[in-house]
Amino acid sequence: MIGDSGAPHMRTFTWSLKLGEYEALGCGTSKKIARNNAAQQMLSILPEEMKKK
Asked: Where does the DRBM domain start and stop, copy by copy (predicted)?
């Protein structure tokens, strides 16, 4: 997790995911949502060869 911001009742969390030379960021209203958004972002930028392994 990179960090969070906003008022306590309206937090926005930011998550970073690194895999080799690739990096993806995800934001969300919960840590779980931010983490899932980062994972989806990573899947969208990875080459197809790496997804099959």
From this structure: 1-48
